[in-house]
């Protein structure tokens, strides 16, 4: 496990304090949102058509974005799903480039760029 020194205010004394956190402690502290992510991943897998699931099982799950940089998240997803999971190279840049591509195509979406996500729910 990796460690990192963090600074903050002690809620009991109200004074500044330095503590050392481990990567394991960070995962434990974030288990509520991580559990929600894991639940959503499992839901997507359950709803994925078999022909696409074959590709996912063959190629694995790729994580992008800042959250993907949380040490151990890839292993946790792999343990829960049984599917090889890894972080993409440059996860923040990947999200920025993808967002830029979508923004450059906004005019091609119906209703002048408005996307009604409610019609995609339940699929």
The helicity comes to 40-55%
DSSP strand count: 4
Major sheet size, sense and barrel closure: 2 strands, antiparallel
Strand percent estimate:
15-25%
- How many separate helices? 5
Structural class by helix and strand composition: alpha+beta
Strand/helix succession = EEHHHEHEH
**Overall 3D shape:** extended
How far do the termini sit from each other? Answer: 39 Å
**Mean pLDDT over the full residue set:** 87
For the CA atoms, what is the radius of gyration? Answer: 19 Å
Low-pLDDT parts are none
Spatial strand arrangement across the major sheet: 1-2
List the helices and strands and how they pair.
Layout: E1 3-9, E2 16-22, H1 23-29, H2 31-47, H3 50-59, E3 61-63, H4 73-81, E4 85-87, H5 91-104
Parallel strand pairs: 3-4
Antiparallel strand pairs: 1-2
Helix pairs in contact: 2-4
What does this protein look like?
The protein has 123 residues and is an alpha+beta fold. It contains five helices and four strands. It has helices at residues 23-29, 31-47, 50-59, 73-81, 91-104; strands spanning 3-9, 16-22, 61-63, 85-87. The strands form two sheets. The chain has a two-stranded antiparallel sheet with strand order 1-2. Strands 3-4 form a two-stranded parallel sheet. Helix 2 packs across helix 4 (73-81). The mean pLDDT is 87.
């Amino acid at each position: 496990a990796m460690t990192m020194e963090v600074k903050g205010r002690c809620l009991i004394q109200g004074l500044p304090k330095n503590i050392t956190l481990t990567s394991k402690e960070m995962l434990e502290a974030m288990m509520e949102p991580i559990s929600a992510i894991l639940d959503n991943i499992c839901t997507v897998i359950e709803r994925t058509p078999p022909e696409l699931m074959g590709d996912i099982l063959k190629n694995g799950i790729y994580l992008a974005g800042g959250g993907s940089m949380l040490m151990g998240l890839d292993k946790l997803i792999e343990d829960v799903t049984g599917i090889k999971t890894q972080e993409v190279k440059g996860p923040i840049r990947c999200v920025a480039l993808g967002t830029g591509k979508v923004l450059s195509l906004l005019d091609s979406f119906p209703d002048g760029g408005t996307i009604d996500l409610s019609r995609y729910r339940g699929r």
